[in-house]
Amino acid sequence: MSLRFAIITSLLEREATGLELTRRFDRSFGYFWPASHQQIYRELRSLLDAGLIEEKGDPARPGRGQPRVVGVTEEGVASLRRWIGELDEPRPERSSLAVRIRAAAATGELGGVEDAVRRHLAAHTATLETYREIERRDFADRLLDAEGELHHLVLRSGLANEQAWIGWCEDALELLQRLRRSE
Predict the structure, then answer these.
(1) What is the domain-level CATH number for residue 25?
(2) Which single residue of 75, 101, 122, 139 has CA 20 to 30 Å from 59?
């Protein structure tokens, strides 16, 4: 997948200025498709050049120097629909932590990797709490339409992923501590 389709999807959900779009990525899309603001602005230019998005007139924002609102063109919607139906192969997740653990196995240096696992555990725990707060705020005690159900499905994937990471980190710490005791 490319950033292109994440941006088109976000703009199809709601037209936005570049700044609004970057903020939306910081609060939503970025949890499952992270991108820097520079990458987003560069892709916006490419999408405009390709005719997949266009500037929208906004009487509330007239004149030069004002933020430009962009929305998806019919060609952009058609491109997104084609992409939805394309098959792609799941890719293995890259994990510097897994490489560190393999390096610890090769060198016998367990102390440093234990600290790395603790940092990952803290980060995944914080992300899980963020996702739970989003779930409470956006999905609790509501009847959801199809769009809402699909948004919740994506969030539940993030929840499950963070829970799996937390469980794995806890198992890793237990194993590393046991191995250090047996040295």
Answers:
(1) 1.10.10.10
(2) 75
